[in-house]
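Exercise 7.
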Amino acid sequence: MNTSLDQTLAGALWPEKSTNMVLRNVVLAIAGSLLLWVSAKVQIPFYPVPMTMQTFVVMGLGVAFGWRLAVATLVLYMLEGAAGLPVFAGTPEKGISLAYMAGTTGGYLVGFVAAAGVIGWLAEKGADKSAFKMFAAMLLGSAVIYACGVTWLSTFIGVEKAIQFGVVPFLYGDLLKAAMAAALFPAVWSLLKKK
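Solution. The predicted structure, written as tokens, is:
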């Protein structure tokens, strides 16, 4: 059976034949949600604002898992947050649960799910095997996150300020993450082909 997961890094590293597919997907989704949790909490000093690796992990899960499992993993992560677990950046200090999710960053959270799906679909089509295509896919994923985030944030502070505070400070970091993905994912595929 040639499922979308079989065309992904996760499928190459953990083939369907080696275990029960449902068990594999559950384990991967839980591991992915835990990785998202950690990535939301770790800040790296960067100009002009500190950078987390959360968007890299969001899109990296899309690349590694394919669109279906990546979206399911992000939905699990959102459910963990909705249940009150402090999985998001700035929690519990800035609130938890649905109140946090409906706040100013809610659109970005929706964008995470959409971006993981878009990147996962592109990876299933082979974008993760080419540095140029991977860089472009990461930029597209970032644009999806920004579009959702700014749309929601602008209802609180207006479009101009939403772009000023919700996009511009993060552009350099996202370019760096796109470059990292362009170097990393095609290299992993090259290593796997050599085995």
